[in-house]
What does this fold into?
Amino acid sequence: MSKKNAILLTATHLFAHKGLNNTSMAELSKITGAAGGTIFHHFKNKEDLFLNVINNVKETVTSAFKTYFLEHRFDNGLKMVEGAIMYYLNLAETMEDRFLLLHRHDPYKLAETNSTCRQYLEEIYDCLLDVFERGIKIGKDDGSIQIISTRNTALIIFSMIDGIVRFNTYKLYSAGALYDDLMASCRKILTR
Amino acid sequence: MSKKNAILLTATHLFAHKGLNNTSMAELSKITGAAGGTIFHHFKNKEDLFLNVINNVKETVTSAFKTYFLEHRFDNGLKMVEGAIMYYLNLAETMEDRFLLLHRHDPYKLAETNSTCRQYLEEIYDCLLDVFERGIKIGKDDGSIQIISTRNTALIIFSMIDGIVRFNTYKLYSAGALYDDLMASCRKILTR
DNA sequence: AAACCAACCGAATGATCGGTCGGGTTTTTT
DNA sequence: AAAAAACCCGACCGATCATTCGGTTGGTTT
It folds into this structure.
């Protein structure tokens, strides 16, 4: 693997687990084996490196989501929303680093001053919410879902799942133990 | 107000809005008007100051919650859960600093190595969850709520609300616009 | 009035940080 | 194989950080 890629992956891991400010370039240099100057050769400064990490998160997360819903068919809209929840919980485990990073303040703080960062974040959430929203819309058409507000319900269900993932991350309680009740709750929200 | 109190309140605000590492003791000194040495006279180090801030958050949040539910009566369990949601959303606005801090990684990171911090956080979440759980239990007894798992449902509803508050904080979307649909969703989860 | 003490001050300190620079090495192009 | 380009190195720099320390003040106790 190229030094640049090693730096990017290690930075993703460290930024996710220790935060932007608690990760020093010296540590990054030590772990990757790249000299200090090498990092600044590939990324013009720390913020640029962070931005590249976020971009990488955006690419991997959205493409994983898009691919999954291109390759899978669902009996109806309700099943599709259920599939989205399952896949989101699944991704949060297999892409732990990336979801951890999205639960930190660092990206949102940078987004306040850096429009590129803001755009990356918006693309991620647009992509995720879009799947939920499409599922609900399809469900309303095929009769498996009965609610009024498509957008708001998508937001509510998404933040419910994301809230669970967050508490799971902090080990306040386990997402796995809630799985069945979580699914039941979502079905109740979506159906009469 | 005493210098010590000024330091504590300013630290709460800065830690909440800028994070632990982005808040320097020098800045704290400048804003409060207290000399550098004075801060370390009252708090033995930065971690100790942060711990005192978390303790203060614990005290104010839990006592606000406890007082509210001691002084209010509800027609039934379902109304009590609805009241808990309303009051939680309300507190997240009026105690913005404190809830912002609880949505940062800083407290949970310290909790990994500092058992006092862990205990404070547990007390906060125990207190909040307890209200939801009691409401659900009462609702099951009086018939306004029909579900199987009291604990899990309390956790699910709580993380739904907390997830909304978090997205509201990041200005990804507004909690106010979701209020009606949020309440409707909760009622659906809790009733047949 | 002497002794005491908590509150307070601010200059000084050593460690660490992000970032620079000049020079060496490898790879690609011509 | 010569030239150009891209990659890589690590010593070094100025800024900033948390923390220390010797000393002052004003009120309370003896």
Observations:
- Residues 51 and 117 of chain B are 6 Å apart (CA to CA).
- Residues 24-26, 36-37, 40, 45-46 of chain B lie near DNA strand D (CB under 10 Å from a C1').
